[in-house]
Specification:
The protein has helices at about 15-25, 35-40, 45-60, 95-115, 125-140, 150-165, 200, 205-215, 220-225, 235-245, 290-310, and strands at about 5-10, 30-35, 65, 80, 120, 145, 170-175, 175-180, 185, 195, 195-200, 250-260, 265-280, 280-285. The chain is α/β, with parallel strands linked by helices.
Length: about 325
């Protein structure tokens, strides 16, 4: 292991592998790929070696260290938790609740034992509830336990806005707040712009409503097309954007899920909002402008998460 900063990715499935690839190609930290040999046998070792060999032509010096245990993860600046069962066709994120909660709880306890100063990024579903699990298991403040759902949902939203308007996705500015389920995410249409022009000036309401609905069902759409396994490329790109913001202290303004402390009138429930991500995790949380209708949907999302948290055993 070099003297570079260290990021641990827990879980070496399709998403964890894609995250590791995107991260090493950034070339600013070493990556530890942690998984259990009883689950994926030697897959994480194979992926690590494959990525090491890719460096000859992809031109990065970052190291990928596979491990079956936790000692190699010690001192990680960020720990990304992807471990957990993926959704299968016909399955909701909520169906995964308690089976994934047990996995997340065990992984978090091990991670924080070896990296007590790390920032945790939670990827496991149902994500908002799993952030609650990670908060409790770690004992960390809200600034260091962050859910990535809004990042992925916003990526899907921007994709559909770009396609519908015919404009470059680089010029689409729009966020999805609220929860990370098919019924609780809230695309914030009221402040979405394309090249600075309000989306509501570019598209009729029926077109906007259709792309909002497609965004909310975006995960299920990919799931249905893949047939086996869920999305992994967009989730990886979204998560590594968060990792970079933290490790490089970029102070990015990004849509993430955190424990609410008064934002939108919500208290002690995980919900998506805009945060400033940099060294140490969330440096500031913001209450982004939303319409009255969007605010009611954000509050409804929080209530739905409260119900899920109440079902945790």
């Amino acid at each position: 292991m070099s003297d570079r900063k260290k990021v641990t990715i827990v879980g070496a499935g399709m998403t964890g592998g894609a995250m590791a690839q995107r991260l090493v190609e950034k070339d600013y930290c070493d990556v530890v790929l942690q998984d259990e040999p009883s689950i994926v046998e030697t897959m994480h070792h194979g992926k690590a070696l494959d990525l090491a060999q890719a460096a000859a032509w992809a031109r990065y010096d970052s190291q990928v260290i596979p491990t079956d245990t936790w000692e190699a993860t010690a001192g990680s600046e960020v720990v990304v938790l992807t471990a957990g069962a993926p959704r299968k066709p016909g399955m909701t994120r909520e169906d995964l609740l308690n089976s994934n909660a047990a996995i997340v709880r065990e992984k978090v306890e091990n991670a924080v034992k070896h990296s007590p100063d790390a920032v945790l990024i939670v990827f496991a579903n149902p994500m908002d509830a799993m952030v609650h699990v990670a908060l409790k298991a770690s004992g960390f403040p809200r600034e260091r336990v962050i859910g990535q759902g809004g990042m992925l949902d916003s990526a899907r939203y921007r994709t559909f806005v770009s396609r519908e308007t015919g404009a470059s996705i680089k010029d689409v500015a729009g966020y999805v707040l609220g929860g990370h389920t098919d019924t609780t995410m809230v695309p914030i249409v009221s402040t979405t712009t394309v090249g600075g022009i309000p989306l509501t000036s570019l598209l009729p309401k029926d077109k906007i409503d259709a792309l909002v609905e497609r965004t909310m069902k975006g995960g299920a759409e990919v799931l249905g097309l893949l047939k086996s396994g869920s999305a992994y490329q967009a989730p990886a790109a979204a998560t590594i954007e968060m990792v970079g913001a933290i490790v490089l202290d970029q102070r990015r303004m990004l849509p993430c899920s955190i424990l609410m402390k008064g934002e939108y009138g919500l208290q002690d429930i995980v919900c998506g909002t805009i945060v400033k991500l940099g060294t140490g995790g969330v440096q500031q949380a913001y209450e982004a402008p939303v319409s009255a209708d969007e605010l009611s949907k954000i509050k409804a999302a929080a209530e739905a998460t409260k119900e899920l948290v109440g079902l945790l055993t």
